[in-house]
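User: Second chain of the day. Same drill as before.
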Amino acid sequence: MTQNEKSIPVIIVGGGQAGLSMSWYLCREKVEHIVFEAKTACHSWDDERWDNFCLVTPNWQCELPGHPYKGKDPHGFMVKQEIIDYVKGFVASFNPPLREHTAVTSITRHEGGGYRVVAGGETWHAKHVVIASGAYQDAVIPGYASAIDPAIHQVHSQDYRNAAQLPEGAVLVVGSGQSGAQIVEDLFLEKRKVHLCVGSAPRVSRFYRGRDVVDWLADMHFYDLTVDNHPLRDGARDKTNHYVTGRNGGHDLDLRLFAKEGVGLHGTLETIRDEVAHFAPDLTENLDDADRTNADIKKSIDAYIAREGITAPTEAPYVPVWEPDGSNTPLDLKAAGITSILWCIGFRPDYRWIDVPVFNGANKPVWHRGVTDAPGFYFLGLPWLHTWGSGRFSGVSRDAAWLASQITGKDVPVA
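Assistant: Same format as last time:
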């Protein structure tokens, strides 16, 4: 170890809910550690969400260690400021060794064992390193976006706040996952003309047979299903989340209903050339697939209700309220009055600062329950790290407790 190198048993990279959950368990187990956060503990909720953002899972699923939701609306959906307050309350509940505004710029193997971590200009040595920086570092925007007329305003979903920040005129939203579908509704409620490029994201009903679908799935132990037992195995990590909303108490997001009420629906965006958008001929297929997924979830709930002998109200099958006409006409952006494009096509992780052999040929980290083949090197807070809830408030505590047991060598019970 060099003269100016500091040593500590455990370093956690990332001070969001995952890294803080890890810190909570290590604090409880009295393991010395430090948490490095490039910005602030709440920055992703505060800086990368639109004004009307809210959770799509009910509040009762917010179960950070030692800090479950204790509000008056367990079946409601926290809005942006409530989420920020919830996370800040978690931080205040145990005062973690958190260093905000301290970016980790390099992690390498240490010649004496363990890892050398450069953070905020300082060099540290740690036997254990937990990467809890998330999977959403680099916003995805296609290369051809740079050739679009600069008069058309472009913004990624992480930078969208409200309709007022966009110039007057119609908006093209690209991507129909959770963010895209919710932002379409946000713009539509502000009486903006919206066009949506519909991708392959599935949908789910908010309520079914008298209850929130999440409540049914929880009783069915869906959220305890591990990735090892998922029909898609590791492929579950690549699946887009179902679109639904918790806004105003929660309701379905039905893209067909949007279309019936004036939103322009198009297939997957293939390219924009000379300010003309070209689409894949898959709009009907994508809408049908989304509905089919929703119907399959309902069938699984029906089967559970029948199997358990539960008394629940019946519900008529969904009937599509709108159908595409089969055309696939390119869209002239200027002729359609489009002055803004909102890119809602996701993120890519950025692990270029990690020089440790834990990645596969596609440069994706390889782990089992967050444990890699590199001794003492872990990942936490990623989608389907172990279960559906791994990247969310509902399941990250269980994952953090497991990794704490790997670090301490003893059983660490889940809080």
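The helical segments are 17-28, 43-47, 80-94, 178-189, 213-219, 255-260, 283-308, 396-408.

User: Great, on to the next one.
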